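Question: I have long wanted to understand how a fold can be written as tokens. Here is the record:
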Amino acid sequence: MGKIIAVANQKGGVGKTTTCVNITAGLAYLNKKVLMVDIDPQGNATQGIGVTLNVKDPTVYDCIVNRYDAESTIKHITNPPIDVLPANINLAGADLELVKLDKGRERRLKETLEPLRDKYDFILIDCPPSLGLLNTNALTAADSILIPVQCEYYALEGVTQLLQTIRLVQRLFNRDLRIEGVLLTMFDARTKLSVEVQQEVRRHFKEKTYRTTIPRNIKLSEAPSRGKSIFDYAIRSEGAKAYVALTKEIIDNNKEVAHG
């Protein structure tokens, strides 16, 4: 059964989508069967991995709101060799549609993904930068949450709100939800601020903080505009090296869990 990991932080600009796209690609290039689920109405993960949608193409919105068949909605791409459950701006109305439902509105994404779990080793969900019903759906569907944290002032401020949401979801909808890991992004070892934020995050989250940090890297910023993962755009870049190391760390951590 595949593991579902939500990549989430309601604070924008922390490298969430970049991380989701490149972990997905990294896992695929290491021979894992992977599905990426985009539930951000901006659709940045969909575009950033090179998926082009036609006007009439169904998206994750149709799956969540109209119970459209997820398998028929998935897009298959070859570079990287992954499947994508895409999103577009239609998803912006999902919160309003879901709030009208009397019951089960928090479980719509879980119900969408459950039939797909056995087909994949990993399912990664790119969450929107908010704490609405879409994020609640992601955390209800997920086994764990990966939290990117940018190395800047107030880095932990937004994470505190997210942790409160995690505890609420654990209590009401998904008692087995765990923190997969906390990832330091946009790290610059030359600056005192990055070093101090790293120390603070590692002190707070201890072994849940990944050993790998993601550096500030222009190639990581350029890759999405080409519709490519960092491995397909600039394999020799420092950003690619960091995401290779992170992907291997995630795989190793999950091997340890599987073996108790």
The first strand starts at residue 3 and ends at 7. The mean pLDDT is 93.
